[in-house]
């Protein structure tokens, strides 16, 4: 039951839901997420750590960046089920549309300063 609760808690924050919806579009680094959401880097990193601990996202080192992507769900069956359903949920939500439609304009080379 703890695993289920961890996933549900991770999904209980609007910014974490936005992050998941953005990661459905493409792999992102912290700077790109930060630029899209207008949040501080430590806040974004904390959100990503919670999502990673819940088995919803995974991180992979890529040169100077850490790329975040959606988990394949192999670690947590609850995360897998919810990620599968989340693809169909919240598509028309104005806040979700705002961040996902703006993603093509956000490039790590422009926002990361690396």
Automatic annotation (TrEMBL):
Record domain HTH arsR-type: where: 1-90
Pfam family, any one: HTH_5
UniProt keyword DNA-binding, yes or no: yes
CDD domains from the UniProt entry: HTH_ARSR
A Gene Ontology molecular function term of the record: DNA-binding transcription factor activity
Gene3D superfamilies referenced in this protein's UniProt entry, alphabetically: Winged helix-like DNA-binding domain superfamily/Winged helix DNA-binding domain
SMART domains per the UniProt record, alphabetical: HTH_ARSR
Protein name: Transcriptional regulator, ArsR family
SUPFAM superfamilies xrefs: Winged helix' DNA-binding domain
InterPro entries, A to Z: ArsR-like_HTH, HTH_ArsR_DNA-bd_dom, HTH_MetalResp_TranReg, WH-like_DNA-bd_sf, WH_DNA-bd_sf
Domain of life: Bacteria
Alphabetical UniProt keywords: DNA-binding, Transcription, Transcription regulation
């Amino acid at each position: 039951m703890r695993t289920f609760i961890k996933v549900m808690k991770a999904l209980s924050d609007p910014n974490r839901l936005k992050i998941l919806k953005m990661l459905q579009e493409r792999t992102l680094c912290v700077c790109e997420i930060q630029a899209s959401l207008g949040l501080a880097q430590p806040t974004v990193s904390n959100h990503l750590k919670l999502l990673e601990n819940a088995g919803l996202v995974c991180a992979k080192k890529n040169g100077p960046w850490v790329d975040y992507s959606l988990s394949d769900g192999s670690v947590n069956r609850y995360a897998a089920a919810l990620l599968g359903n989340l693809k169909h949920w919240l598509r028309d939500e104005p806040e979700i549309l705002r961040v996902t439609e703006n993603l093509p304009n956000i490039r790590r080379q422009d926002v990361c300063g690396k």
